Amino acid sequence: MSNVAKVVMSLQWIPVQIALLSGIGCGNIFLHSDITHRVLSLAERELQDSGVALITPSTVTGRDEDKQALALAFYSVISEQRPDVKVVSLAHTLSAINRADLVEEYERMFVEEATETGIFRHDILGKITQVTGARFLAQLKLAGFRQESVLRWSLLGVRLVQTKRATMRLYLQIWDSRDGSIAWEGSVEVMQSIDTSSEHEVTLRTIARQAALELVQGLPGGDDAAPEPPSAAFDELDGEPSR
Questions:
Q1: 227 falls in which pLDDT band (50, 70, 90)?
Q2: 29-217: which CATH topology?
Q3: 101 backbone φψ class: left, alpha, beta (φ>0; ψ -120 to 50)
Q4: Core-most of 25, 86, 166, 241, by most CB within 10 Å?
């Protein structure tokens, strides 16, 4: 078959391709999550009564630059979902630590102690509580984050629809500064995908917000109803949804 004939046959399939694409539902979000959590000592109203402050997250190797974005996404979600709880953002926590000249002790707690043992020292937790005003301290741990793109439809060598997918594994511990114990812990794995013709990815912020939403729903004193998926298909770090 000549090249001209192949092109003609391909063009004949264009209406069929368009019809198929219109039925895919471009922009539809597909979401799967698996969450586990357990209450160790955190009572029903203790978060509301005593508040919680975010401390520096930990991440897998090579994703250190994501710590701030991860903490910001979690702070945004818990502030929206639990307005009854006083939440101190990571930025405010770090500022308070710096003003109180606790930087060296804070760094030592993370670098020399928690890295090896997974334990945050009771005395330093108490000092952080003193400068933030929150009894409980929350640490996020990013255990895994992956983005991928799979071609779904193409025409004459042009990519028309791709499945953009992201997976995140996130762990949260809430420490009680009064006795240095872990009061609550939870982990979640979230996979979010969308069929789209745009070049946007499922961003870290988008998937982090969804993972945070799942975790926040499990905290004592909150609404046990299933969390709603985000309304925007892609929520970029600058706040602009995809078109």
A1: very low
A2: Double Stranded RNA Binding Domain (3.30.160)
A3: left
A4: 166
